[in-house]
Design a protein that fits this description.
It contains 16 helices and 15 strands. The chain is α/β, with parallel strands linked by helices. Helix 2 (about 55-75) crosses helix 14 (about 375-390) and helix 3 crosses helix 14. The chain binds 2-acetamido-2-deoxy-beta-D-glucopyranose (4 copies). It is found in: Golgi apparatus membrane.
Length: about 475
């Protein structure tokens, strides 16, 4: 189909410098445009084939898109969804929305339009329901270069980009590293993720938050009588970043069982803090290294989704009329991308990933009937899986292990000791690691047991953040003879 033009001058660029140079440029340009044309037409016919073969998937997804559009119209407080095709969707803020947050890096105000690939978003977030998001020893053992390269990236005080001395790295991580995932997919039915927005003071969600099976907070969020009616008193998990470590000790007082999960790196300030509290501490696993992590809010949602069926979010800045980034317990602080965040959280709500609670939504009747239900989401998800498989030509495997790139195996006698180390400070000897790591299988919620059995006790982890097909999967060989 494409003919490569012969070069007019047999290799030599002799005689006259200008003319041949221009000719070469012209030839190069025409070859290039032919090449682009060829690529475009092959893509086009490729797409046509996929559209013809996957009519049913396209139909399911298009139908799903119209449900998402309706959901955004009903719940988005002014946001609207424009459908581009069976996967692509644009969320628009109304004309005249105050876009006052200034992006210093790109020197622009936030745009009023955001485009999404709903198929991909669905694939990504449904995957979290089966993931472990805690860094474990079995993960480091199974991942290629897990100890040498990955572990080193999680230790700020190492001062080297590789664990050339593995003993040293093991020593630093020992206290934070459980042998296998301490928490299970579907362990809880409902979870509340509580952000730190000052909007929390406009409502009294306290009791509602406390009625969840688990509550996840972040950083320095104080929990005490002063704020109880706004943010509740229940404390189960807390994601912390480096900056939060310094003030953590008074905040944790009276909450010895609250699990701390370090978002990115462990480092000296953390180590010193950890020595002085009895709380169980782990490292978050699904961090996007190098490219820089997304906001803590996203990470708390990932953590929640890896343990909870229903994720209710409170205290995120998601209402129209943003003026400045506030926190419920301190002066306003520099924030980031309020419109982009609001649009994305709205999309996630309409994909059944989270349920948003905020002052402007507090008064309406609690009614989730305009959000696509589980059945519709599962159908759309499977259609997206089949479509992606058809596009990448890896048809066939639709099972739950299709994205496992790397496998590890752990036998019944190689599980290793639970977290904690023999040289712990006196206060850490009270750490209640066993509460999670030695919970008997029979005590797990039925849905979690069913999932464990269906997955044959395999734990799944992401290798690097947001890629879909790079899972590290670890098989747990069960005790022989039952
Ligand atoms: C490796 O680290 C351990 C623990 O800190 C230390 O005892 C040992 O001497 C180190 N080995 C080398 C070769 O530096
Ligand atoms: C609650 O925490 C805030 C912030 O740390 C503090 O100012 C306040 O005094 C605390 N209230 C109580 C009753 O402890
Ligand atoms: C540890 O957790 C268990 C299970 O929730 C609880 O019964 C026990 O009281 C806790 N122990 C301590 C020392 O907090
Ligand atoms: C998640 O696990 C369930 C079993 O509980 C399985 O049916 C499903 O296919 C898995 N989902 C994904 C996205 O892997």
């Amino acid at each position: 189909m494409m003919k490569r033009p012969q070069p007019p001058f047999g290799g030599g660029g002799s005689g006259g410098h200008r003319r041949p140079a221009i000719l070469y440029l012209l030839i190069a340009a025409s070859v290039f445009s032919l090449f682009i044309f060829a690529i475009q037409s092959s893509l086009f016919t490729g797409n046509q084939n996929i559209l013809a073969v996957n009519k049913e998937e396209i139909w399911i997804l298009s139908h799903f898109q119209s449900n998402v559009k309706q959901c955004v119209a009903k719940r988005g407080l002014g946001l609207t969804a424009n459908i581009i095709d069976h996967c692509k969707l644009v969320l628009k803020f109304p004309e005249g929305t105050d876009s006052r947050w200034f992006n210093k890096q790109f020197k622009v105000f936030e745009p009023l339009e955001y485009s999404y690939d709903v198929c991909e978003t669905l694939l990504l977030w449904e995957q979290y329901r089966n993931m472990s998001t805690i860094l474990t020893r079995e993960y480091l053992d199974a991942r290629p270069d897990g100890w040498l390269t990955y572990a080193a990236k999680r230790i700020a005080q190492l001062g080297a980009d590789k664990c050339y001395n593995r003993t040293l790295c093991e020593e630093i991580l020992r206290m934070l590293l459980p042998p296998y995932p301490p928490f299970h997919p579907h362990q809880f039915k409902t979870c509340a993720v509580v952000g730190n927005s000052g909007d929390l003071l406009k409502t009294e969600f306290g009791e509602e938050i406390d009625s969840h099976d688990a509550v996840i907070r972040d950083n320095e969020a104080p929990v005490n009588k002063t704020y109880a009616k706004h943010v509740g008193m229940k404390r189960d998990f807390r994601i912390v970043v480096r900056g939060g470590a310094r003030n953590m000790i008074p905040i944790l007082r009276g909450s010895d069982d609250e699990v701390l999960i370090i978002k990115s790196l462990t480092h000296r300030v953390f180590n010193e803090m950890i020595e002085r509290v009895p709380n169980p501490v782990y490292l978050f696993q699904g961090i996007v290294l190098r490219r820089g992590a997304k906001g803590t809010g996203m990470k708390t949602i990932e953590l929640a989704l890896s343990m909870c069926d229903i994720v209710d979010i409170y205290g995120f800045t998601v209402d129209p009329g943003y003026t400045e980034w506030t926190r419920y317990f301190s002066e306003p602080k520099g924030g980031h991308n309020p419109l982009q965040g609001r649009a994305y959280y709205q999309l996630l709500e309409c994909l059944g990933v989270i349920r948003i609670h905020s002052p402007m939504r507090a008064k309406r009747k609690v009614d989730w009937s305009d959000v696509p239900n589980r059945d519709m989401i599962n159908k759309a998800h499977m259609a997206a899986v089949r479509l992606t498989n058809a596009q990448t030509g890896q048809a066939g495997d639709l099972g739950p292990f299709r994205s496992c790139k790397v496998w590890g195996n752990v036998g019944p006698n190689e599980r290793g000791p639970i977290s904690g180390s023999p040289d712990m400070s006196d206060i850490r000897k009270r750490s209640n690691y066993s509460k999670w790591e030695e919970m008997p299988f029979e005590k797990l919620r039925k849905e979690a047991q069913d999932h464990y059995i269906q997955m044959q006790g395999t734990s799944m982890y992401k290798m690097d953040g947001n890629k879909l097909d790079d899972l590290v999967c670890v098989r747990h060989t069960l005790e022989s003879g039952n």
